[in-house]
Amino acid sequence: MIKTAIAGASGYTGLELVKLISNHPKTSLEAVTSNSYQGKSFTDIFPSMRGFKSLICTPFDANELADKVDVVFLALPHKVSMAFAPKLVDRNIKVVDLSADFRFDDAKAYEAVYQPHTASNLLKESVYGLCELNRDRIKGARIIGNPGCYPTSILLPLVPLLKEKLISPQGLISDSKSGVSGAGRSLSLTTHYCEANEAFGPYKVGNHRHTPEINEVLTKAAGERVSLTFVPHLVPVTRGMVSTIYARTRKGAAEKQIRATLNRWYENEPFVRILPPDKFPNMSHVKGTNCCDIGFHLEPESGRLIIVSAIDNLLKGAAGQAVQNMNIMFEIDEKAGLDWVQTPL
Amino acid sequence: MIKTAIAGASGYTGLELVKLISNHPKTSLEAVTSNSYQGKSFTDIFPSMRGFKSLICTPFDANELADKVDVVFLALPHKVSMAFAPKLVDRNIKVVDLSADFRFDDAKAYEAVYQPHTASNLLKESVYGLCELNRDRIKGARIIGNPGCYPTSILLPLVPLLKEKLISPQGLISDSKSGVSGAGRSLSLTTHYCEANEAFGPYKVGNHRHTPEINEVLTKAAGERVSLTFVPHLVPVTRGMVSTIYARTRKGAAEKQIRATLNRWYENEPFVRILPPDKFPNMSHVKGTNCCDIGFHLEPESGRLIIVSAIDNLLKGAAGQAVQNMNIMFEIDEKAGLDWVQTPL
Amino acid sequence: MIKTAIAGASGYTGLELVKLISNHPKTSLEAVTSNSYQGKSFTDIFPSMRGFKSLICTPFDANELADKVDVVFLALPHKVSMAFAPKLVDRNIKVVDLSADFRFDDAKAYEAVYQPHTASNLLKESVYGLCELNRDRIKGARIIGNPGCYPTSILLPLVPLLKEKLISPQGLISDSKSGVSGAGRSLSLTTHYCEANEAFGPYKVGNHRHTPEINEVLTKAAGERVSLTFVPHLVPVTRGMVSTIYARTRKGAAEKQIRATLNRWYENEPFVRILPPDKFPNMSHVKGTNCCDIGFHLEPESGRLIIVSAIDNLLKGAAGQAVQNMNIMFEIDEKAGLDWVQTPL
Amino acid sequence: MIKTAIAGASGYTGLELVKLISNHPKTSLEAVTSNSYQGKSFTDIFPSMRGFKSLICTPFDANELADKVDVVFLALPHKVSMAFAPKLVDRNIKVVDLSADFRFDDAKAYEAVYQPHTASNLLKESVYGLCELNRDRIKGARIIGNPGCYPTSILLPLVPLLKEKLISPQGLISDSKSGVSGAGRSLSLTTHYCEANEAFGPYKVGNHRHTPEINEVLTKAAGERVSLTFVPHLVPVTRGMVSTIYARTRKGAAEKQIRATLNRWYENEPFVRILPPDKFPNMSHVKGTNCCDIGFHLEPESGRLIIVSAIDNLLKGAAGQAVQNMNIMFEIDEKAGLDWVQTPL
């Protein structure tokens, strides 16, 4: 059994991790930490868990954790993660970090949108945990930077097409839509029920922090500088994410080739589902799964490619991919604990 | 492994059964039948299942099923069930019927609100599958009438209090609220998005078919005729059910006794959670679980008892309880396949 | 033209008042005050108003208002209202107060659930603004205590039936359900989108502050002490309120009499709609109107009367009734500014 | 008073028209027709209207209408409109048609996506009722083709920018999102509550019938062939529409010029609101209004222009614009009956 702990368990991602780890056949959950709820019972925070999981939230203590666990999931805010992670890695505990702190190759790119990086040594060795694309490097890693939800939905379809030169790296657009749980459990007017209900609109147009994370990976895939136009929107649902991506095919690239390429990359992947022609993803089809659904349409005349991808922002976009990363790191069945569909209805 | 089939798999209850049975450690799913979708892939009906479960819907054929399975779940409309069930029982296949057809002891009570009963012999032997209260009889049963969702939410709290004479059998009221999935997948103006969204109100006031089902069980528990006032309401959520029940305590019954009684009946039950004082159920706390949460408040002066119960209408109110019944019938761990929390957020 | 001001315009009730007053044929809106947004444009707080109403929020100043207006709507929190109201009344400005501060006849009843009353002289002269029942006293009033939303939905159907001795004053129950806007615009975990969405449950069981307000009026109507059992619930919609009320008819009272009585009291009332037999109210039917819909069903055998009433909590439950009160106070057409249906869909 | 009738009043657009016309200071509503509900009271179809508007639905009869009214709004399905419209125009009744039948200049473009046009003479004289852009021609028109909701949201921002050569006519994309009421009141699985709730995704990718309607107008504005990439999505709200539009600026066009141009075209328009820098539209800001909100962001490096527009699909996208067209046709105040905000909360 892999012994695990979850730091920052009182947020929505924390809750998902607790559920996934509790239902995982090869793990035990040894500790949950929470700053704001220390000493409290986990079921007082999330009454749905009553009777299923009896846990008391403790403060984060690297020494205590080192005695108890093999891996820690950090479901913490940016900045807090990079303070905690080195203490764990130093004690030979593996880390899957769900913040942005260990997602970048380039500390400067990180610092341009977040803050000074205080653990840049560790940043150098951390692996970007986009499982399907970085599996080999994840295996040996001591620390994983678990991808953002928007980047996951955008990178999975685009990386293969850029690598295989089927689409132009210029003029890429992602019009993305997220459920409200992406904004977390902290209170704000934007996520106040009467403001988010029966509403829909874009936010952070032109300056969302996920943009550089996306561009760094796309640039590597394309072999030249990529600058995606990214517009996120808030949808009145609790969970789910859809990205509608617009690209231009390179001369000659036909629908057949695009399909063949995506199939080649993903047909053996359990968590990427390439939809048949004329079928498109919907948030409701991936809710409660670790899947990324991908559908596409090629406008014959213009060569414009429309790709639609969908994930559950809390699963493949956060806790699910984190568990998938752990499965790869520990070289157990990658599907363990993820091979089922939670409530899709 | 218990070999199972699900008849009527294309409805919402059918989908839940497919998911539960697929994740159940001791069962295999051998067939799904659907009248309207025969020959179609199950994932065409419910795209969320793509990659998880590959199934083709077949027409219902008792002989074929008899060769393949040990038990059939009938997630069929009233009337269809009583045509199919005898064919299965005759072939020594156990049946868990989710329609109303095998819920009544008294064929006349059934016929008063449904239609003439065409399998009244089988009705005599069928057991009302309210697991916590009828466990012993369920064990040996060949056919189970799986309780309605409203009755489940009302009977679990009331039966113990009536049996132990803590509340009066007169003047009982249940003000109940159901999510829209309770109305199924058939189209109607009531469940058209723009009509159900941002709306709330009662329906079938004074003549809901679940009332006689509830009264039959309450009458037996009380040892005298009970006639509950039942008012169902439609809530704009997909899944969930709350019943707010009003009763009068018998002279002398104090909060302490009520709590002690409910605890005594249910403290070892995995799927009934008696909430601590001043805590009350919410649909969101039971969503994705097979639990019935029960909280209560006794008005000191008036002796009025307010009981609130909550279930997931598709799980404890339908598919979850059906699986629990199967577990009991086959004498395996009652929690098998049900010991986890699906997406509560 | 009646010159008006709205104090506390930045809440949801304030917004409704601004819209109603702006569309009212006999009023002008001279000032809006807001503590938290002073100096800000009203359209920055509520972008929907851009182009329709250009207003700057000012701090509350009784002297300034006295020079400008005939009447002030106080859409302020409890306690703040009773500090502001006397200053206005002293300057001969009429006041419609939407807080609880001037709703009670009995200061002690108020103090038992709120705080010490610092304007009890004014409390003595203030009139409870339930328009249909107190019209004569409202006419001459200087200050109105605008009723709570729950009380409005409960009192309109019950007062006539109690006064005419058709129902027993004992054993009354109201199982009430409110949309989330009833909780206002202040942030809380309860009204955080992901907590309120796809959720439903009771709150403040046994101790909601509206209970004594309701009981004071019912007691007067019955001529004997009434103690209603009141259980409020939160529904995932923005606006709307339904109360399902349970009463016992007095011996001999038949459906016909009940209907005749309600019709006699309300058939000439523009804002109370007694529904025909077998029709019941729904939040969606009153949304955007100042109406209270009332439907009922009498269980023939038990004599149990089920009454369902529905209002828009922000209109008949708050801002709409406040404007109706102003219309009565100034003896203009009672329907002015309220004789239309906003977005019911 | 302008005498009006509404044909097809039992749909959601019909209901909006009834409300708008009933509150309009210069019109009377003489008749409502409905095929499916003839002989029924309008308040039986829409109980919210009880007490406000007493109307009986009649069958459509051109002779009867000709005796009674000056103008008829046709809120009918495609094809039915072109059968009815000529009968009215022949009798000197003005027509505002809300179907697609009279929106096209080119009958062939219409026939390519709908069906053979049976009133092509009338099509030649009909005016495309995009009020802000075609006001002069609308004035003298006998028949108006009221624009589709998607086209309205896309054309209002794009036409000025194309006409003034600030953006390239190549590579235009509109990623559009509509509330569910856009699909009307006819039942379908897509608009069944449990399917649309907690869901989001694209539909009709590559073949929505609004695309040729949009392209015809854009082509005229640009003076060269325009082929917009259009992807509509369904959002789980009742009403509202947002289009996120991607364009490339022509060399030299700066944010300043774009803003100046939009302001010049629209600053005196009561129903187009150009938002200040860094502000973006939201469905909730236009709900219940006849406004189109437009915000934009220019990516400095790439020259990519991101324009976001929002309308209420049932008002500026249908019934509101229809009334605005009538106001222009009859040369009364264009804002009459539209100069207020319905429930934005």
UniProtKB/TrEMBL annotation, chains A, B, C, D:
| EC numbers for this chain | 1.2.1.38
Reactions this protein catalyses: N-acetyl-L-glutamate 5-semialdehyde + phosphate + NADP(+) = N-acetyl-L-glutamyl 5-phosphate + NADPH + H(+)
Q: Does the keyword Amino-acid biosynthesis apply?
A: yes
Pfam families assigned: Semialdhyde_dh, Semialdhyde_dhC_1
GO CC terms, sorted: cytoplasm
Report the residue ranges that make up the Semialdehyde dehydrogenase NAD-binding domain in this protein. Answer: 3-141
Which superkingdom does the taxonomy of this entry point to? Bacteria
Q: Which SMART domains match?
A: Semialdhyde_dh
Q: In which pathway does it act?
A: Amino-acid biosynthesis; L-arginine biosynthesis; N(2)-acetyl-L-ornithine from L-glutamate: step 3/4
Which subcellular locations apply to this protein? Cytoplasm
Q: Which GO terms describe its molecular function?
A: N-acetyl-gamma-glutamyl-phosphate reductase activity; NAD binding; NADP+ binding
Which keywords annotate this record?
Answer: Amino-acid biosynthesis, Arginine biosynthesis, Cytoplasm, NADP, Oxidoreductase
What residues make up the catalytic site?
A: 149
What GO biological process terms does the UniProt entry carry, in alphabetical order?
L-arginine biosynthetic process
Question: Has keyword NADP?
Answer: yes
User: Which family does the record claim for this protein?
Assistant: Belongs to the NAGSA dehydrogenase family. Type 1 subfamily.
Q: What does this protein do?
A: Catalyzes the NADPH-dependent reduction of N-acetyl-5-glutamyl phosphate to yield N-acetyl-L-glutamate 5-semialdehyde.
The name of this protein is: N-acetyl-gamma-glutamyl-phosphate reductase
